[in-house]
Design goal:
The chain is built from 8 helices and 16 strands. The chain is α/β, with parallel strands linked by helices. Strand 11 and strand 12 form a beta hairpin.
Length: 294
Amino acid sequence: MKPDRGPDVAEAAQYIEAFRDRLVVVKLGGELLDGGPVLERILPQIVILVRCGLRPLIVHGGGKQVDAECKQRGLVPRKFRGRRVTDDATLDVLVSVVGGDLNRAIVERLRRDGVPAIGFEDGVTSAVHCVRRPPTVEDGETVDWGWVGDVVGVDASKFTKGPNGWSVPVLPSLGTLDDGHLVNVNGDAVASRVASDLGASKLVLLTSIAGVMRGLDAAGPISQLPVSAVRELIDEGVIAGGMRAKVEEALKAIDRGVERVHIISGREPATLLREIFSDNGCGTLVVPDDAGLR
């Protein structure tokens, strides 16, 4: 069986023309960064987007890798509702692993293919403006989150098309406070806010599963969901756990003006190209209630 190389040229042409010079924000979950083969499937697709005239921007996490490094250093990860309590030592791990190793690997891989890219070492994190999360009560316990931030804005001037074309920004899940101090930020929240503040045409959330499912025994993901249907599935408990948090960030992006949010698998070949450049796509498309069928 031949590998899936994505949509054919005739099908893709109309979408290439429609999205030429438009911003597409792509979020990579940390679970997709835990090995070369997955990145070797995803990043060449980013290269193709650039060569087709689109302007991709990458946001990535690294929770799994941070957990492993914390264990290596004798630190016990502490989390509430999936969010990491971030003391000084944990922030050092995040900067080293997410801002350092993972971010550098993505930037260097793109540059190796001739695509200009800018990452943490080039100061991209300074564009993500945050406030420090205040203590909250979780399960009856007052939690001091430490160096955890909530995104309040993105400086669009940091990401502009220069005389040599578009340099792909690669943003780790880190932001900055007013005084310049780094903070740990949820990667989906960064991607959602970047997409809305920069006027992206699409936000693509690449995950380890194919999209939003109606159940564990579902044959495949729900192809398209309007906002009202998403909220119903949340209320019914069909969308729960980590997928609920991801979908809620998708809803925030749409509420702030992003027209299309795609939730797709990053583990299968050509999913990003097929989702953007074909009629049917391959994951779940979340749209405003007044949008038509894809």
